[in-house]
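Its record is quoted verbatim for completeness.
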Amino acid sequence: MTTNKPLLGILSMIASTAVLSAKDGLAKTFVDEVNPVQMIWIQFVGTFIVMSLVTLPRHGIRTFTPKPAFGQFIRGTLNAVAIVALYWSLIYIPLADATAMFMFAPTIVTLLSPFLLGEKLGIRRAIAVGVGFAGVIVILRPDLSGDAIGYYIGLLSGILMGLYFIANRKLAGAQPPLLNITHNALLGGLALTPFFQLFWVPIDPVNLPKLAAIIALAVVGQALMISAFMFATAVTLAPFSYTFIVFATAIGYFVFGDFPDQITWIGIALIVASGLFIAIREIQLAEAAKPIKTSDG
């Protein structure tokens, strides 16, 4: 059941981006040894195996029977295909450019939520989302120097991820959160199965602990993200997906020694300002919606 607790939803989303950024930082340390498509398939399948061990004692056969089946299939497929499109775009364009296109997802959420979810979109929040996206562009500075087809594919990945976020909201109350995570991994893994076989390479045993850690971080990150959509609207949460860039920048500095320049800090400031505005605005609206208490006599 979805509840109106915007601050809890926002904190869950921020925690999710932190955990998932850590996962991606770990993946960066050995992505040249394990094919990205292969790594993502292992992540989905591993997540399903771990989550099924958790859900089987409580939910039994429901672990293997997603409901609503069609909605769960659409969500899992959107998630998988969005990631496939992101990595496909990297064949043609630089990583920064592809990531910028991928981060178009929150704008898609904002634009489509009134039509697909019936959520109200105010002009202030729309502007805040635009400011957040501007911050991403400032940080990544895509210059459209690669093959044009790569940008179209990258944009497709952003659109698909935005639809995935909307699907999260749509299905947030359909099943318990643990089953949502389990079925998303199950169906996403099935959607990727035809692709991973084309890119499979032998895995060095030294990388197995890293893959196990990636699965663990994926489980926690997905749990936090799906929970976020149970407490706040998709429009509210959209700007906070940009905090992914903030954590990625921090990991790049502390782990890989990539020190952000002045322009990067300007971008981060725009992202933080966007998120803070939405948080304050949502809290104000929630307080205003509470009934006014009156005293008798």
